[in-house]
Amino acid sequence: MSIKRIARHLVQHHWRAKQIFPQAVLDRIEQAIKRGEVTHSGQVRFVVEGALDGRPLFRNQPARARALDVFSHLRVWDTAHNNGVLIYLLLADRDVEIIADRGIDAKVGTEGWETICRAMEAEFRLGRFEGGVISGIEAVSRELEKHFPKQGPHANELPDAPVVM
């Protein structure tokens, strides 16, 4: 366990996420998700967590493991076509993780998701958080449209609103 990581998480607590992602930005992110879901039958969720605390932090839980927990907790896996995708941002670690259900993950693969994550992280390093998230949502939506194009009406199985933890 790194003392530096613990300090970063304790100092950059949850206020940072609300500062970078005020309600107006969250509303625009939600609209980007809605626009994408018009083109495909997949489900996209975006979660930003300012910092880990408690047990996850002191167990030194990596962002990927935390993203898997959030994926499960929000039931992103619970879609008719197994094509739910979670975009998870852990601000304190400056780490983006994409967790995809087996239906879409088998088609895009780790390398495809990593490419999207790295592009988002590059935008974040330049201070362009809103643009980075929206670009990431658009990239995920293109993959979903390619492999799960919308065919007729379908229910919106998961909420489109971003989650700030």
Written description of the protein model:
With 165 residues, the chain is of the alpha/beta class. It has a single domain (3-150, 157-164), classed as Roll (Diaminopimelate Epimerase, Chain A, domain 1), CATH 3.10.310. It is built from 7 helices and 4 strands. It has helices spanning 3-11, 15-20, 23-37, 54-58, 63-73, 102-125, 129-147; strands spanning 43-49, 84-90, 95-100, 163-164. It has a 4-stranded mixed sheet, sandwiched between helices. Strand 2 and strand 3 (95-100) form a beta hairpin. Helix 3 packs parallel to helix 7 (129-147) and helix 6 packs antiparallel against helix 7 (129-147). The mean pLDDT is 90. Residues 19-142 form the TPM domain. This is Membrane protein. InterPro entries: TPM_dom. Pfam families: TPM_phosphatase (PF04536).
What labels describe this entry?
globular; about 160 residues; alpha/beta
